[in-house]
Specification:
- The protein is of the alpha+beta class.
- It folds into two domains: 154 residues, PurM-like, N-terminal domain (60s Ribosomal Protein L30, Chain: A, 2-Layer Sandwich); 161 residues, PurM-like C-terminal domain (Phosphoribosyl-aminoimidazole Synthetase, Chain A, domain 2).
- The chain is 28% helix and 19% strand.
- It has a five-stranded antiparallel sheet.
- The longest helix is centred in the N-terminal third of the chain and has 18 residues.
- It is globular, with a radius of gyration of 25 Å.
């Protein structure tokens, strides 16, 4: 029991209601800058109202996704640069539903702070709003929480929810993919928002965030805060061509791990890992960390942020669209039959030998033990990509 003269209060417990009110006042104008005719309410209500226009759709399907930006947050927090992490989150979420063929409609955010700083919150939301405007998305609401005891004072966490719409017959789900189809990769901007736990462990044990890195032609902080690209403009171009069979946003799990998610059963990927130049940041991480190729391919995008699967005869048109947007498309592989799958199931029954007596029973020693145990644009002149359009020659796994 408290025996002093000062009573407990919410503020003394670490939650400042006035800071929350100031934050709402600061972010309102940023959110309003993204509104369109479908938004029926302002910021501050218990719920957000959005009236979509279904007049252009015969069978409209809503597509949603929730995501975060992983430990890239630690870079933003440690550098005090909060204006781009919100853009990263929106672009990441946009890509996740755009690869399904969806047009994004609205976005909602969640921000949790150890100690709410209205200025920092406003910078983050300004980033949300900027990316929402660029992607034609309405920022219609969110939640801001101050959680003392859960986070350090300067720490915060973010997540975003996005909802989009697609005509049912236009859903891109990979069902028509077949053997011989081509994989076309489009460049990333760096790590985007995945692999940061490993990247920080390797890079920050050797370099300071403010340190200039010749291989990157910028500081370590600038490299690690490069913006996650929104592929929505490209995907919109590709949808007009009506020749895309499958799309994969390359995030955690790497190129193979994400692209195989859209493959029908019975197919696999034959990736030519030398078909494109890997960005310097990935080379430095691998060399400093003595990391195997297999681990790198699982943890990072390795310079490919989006993969498109199409018929060989449509590859040139799709690559032309990518070149138009300076996304340096490369043929990075093909779809093949999965030799590890079979339509036949074989059952093997083992009948143990009958033991004559207890004396003949010999226990084998256990030989195996088991345990249970996610600001900066890349100047084109420093991208290790050729500005020459990709040729039409086929590539194969080396």
């Amino acid at each position: 029991m408290q025996t002093g003269s000062d009573p407990f209060s919410y503020k003394s417990a670490g939650v400042d209601i006035r800071a929350g009110e100031e934050t709402v006042d600061r972010i309102k104008s940023h959110a309003r800058s993204t509104f369109n005719a479908s938004v029926l309410s302002g910021i501050g209500h218990f719920g957000a109202f959005f009236q979509p226009d279904f007049s252009r759709y015969t069978e409209p399907v809503l597509v949603s996704s929730v995501d975060g930006v992983g430990t890239k947050l630690r870079i933003a927090i440690n550098t005090g640069i909060h204006s781009t992490i919100g853009q990263d989150l929106v672009n990441h979420c946009v890509n996740d539903i755009a690869v399904c063929g969806a047009t994004p409609l609205f976005f909602m955010d969640y921000m949790a702070f150890g100690k709410l700083n209205p200025r920092v919150a406003e910078e983050i939301v300004a980033g949300f709003a900027k990316a929402c405007r660029e992607n034609g998305v309405a920022l219609i609401g969110g939640e801001t929480a101050e959680m003392p005891g859960m986070y350090q004072k300067k720490d915060y966490d973010l997540s975003g929810t996005i909802v989009g719409i697609v005509e049912k017959s236009k859903i891109i789900d990979g069902k028509s993919i077949q053997e011989g189809d081509v994989l076309i990769g489009f460049r990333s901007n760096g790590l985007h928002t995945n692999g940061y736990s490993l990247a920080r462990k390797v890079l920050l044990s050797e370099f300071r965030l403010e340190e200039y890195i010749p291989d990157f032609r910028c500081s370590m902080a600038e490299e690690l805060l490069r913006l996650h690209i929104s592929y929505l403009p490209l995907i919109n171009e590709l949808k007009v061509l009506n020749s895309v069979k499958g799309l994969a946003h390359i995030t955690g799990g790497g190129i193979e791990g994400n692209t195989k998610r859209v493959l029908p059963e019975g197919f696999a990927l034959d990736i030519n890992w030398e078909a494109w130049p890997h960005l310097p940041v990935f080379k430095v991480i691998q060399e400093l960390g003595n990391i195997s190729d297999a681990e790198m391919r699982t943890a990072f995008n390795l310079g490919i942020g989006l993969v498109c699967i199409c018929s060989p005869e449509n590859a040139n048109a799709i690559m032309a669209a990518g070149n138009k947007l300076r996304l340096h498309p490369k043929r990075i592989g093909t779809v093949v039959k999965d030799v590890n799958t079979s339509s036949e199931i074989t059952l093997s029954v083992v009948i143990p030998a009958i033991q004559e007596s207890k004396d003949e029973i010999h226990e084998e020693e256990e030989t195996e033990k088991h345990s249970i145990i996610e600001v900066v644009e890349v100047p084109d002149e420093i991208q290790p990509w050729s500005d020459e359009p990709e040729g039409t020659e086929n590539s194969r796994n080396k």
